[in-house]
Amino acid sequence: MGNALRWPIGTEVRHKPIPGGAMLYDASRAGNANEAWFDPLWWSKRGEVRPSIEGRGAAVFIEADERRLVLRHYRRGGWIARLTRDRYRWSDESRTRSYLEWHLLYVLRRAGLPVPVPIAARYQRTSRHTYSADLLTEQIPDAPSLATRLQRAPLATGSWSAIGRCVRRFHAAGIYHADLNAHNVLLGEGDRVWLVDFDRGGLRTPGFWCDSNLVRLRRSIEKITDALPLGHFCEADWSSLLDAYFALDQSVLAQEPV
Q1: Has 179 been annotated as catalytic?
Q2: Helices then strands (H, E): number in the chain?
Q3: pLDDT of residue 85
Q4: Which segments in the chain show pLDDT lower than 70?
Q5: For all residues of the chain together, what is the average pLDDT?
Q6: DSSP H helices in the chain
Q7: Which of 39, 134, 179, 211 is catalytic?
């Protein structure tokens, strides 16, 4: 696969103007998508909002028609959040946070990488110079985050190795994750691993940023486990992750199941 990922778009991808903005959606997965799908209150009135132990940011977890979805409203972080919680500078439609992340997830799914299925994305102009944004994806069922798993109990060596292999697949393909931390790594049955939350992510030539990603991941793990009993994370765990990361042959990167 290398770094050959591009931005191909199939005929199932639709663009729809809505009041104050527009939405992008996959008609093969959501043929009747409309702007109400981005309103948490609309889902709540239908009795389809579900609690989640993860509680990730501004995410709303939905269960409707035997489907599990995650609706995320983009919110500011850091010092700028004191000025505006959810407004972003307008440039053009193609550069909105929701459209960029939706397109990236779309490409990664088509490349066979383990990420959530993108359903729909929306932006709405909030002024001449700003906009707000939302993203709707399929929820990965029965896959708590690495953070949640660590809080429950130590992980087996095989789980650490699976995380290392997963991260390596993304790095070898040139996939930059802007916030690789223990909350954005999901673990399912059989040591299956997914990465989520690709806001500000993108395609890059593999380089030093790969090391920075790993450092960021380790720091988040240490932050979570520092307050936990000894044994929830140790140097041997990280070594298992790195051994798998560096041992994975690039020729088989694309053969891992999604």
Answers
A1: yes
A2: 6, 12
A3: 87
A4: 1-8, 53-57, 81, 249-258
A5: 91
A6: 40-45, 97-110, 146-152, 157-172, 208-225, 235-247
A7: 179
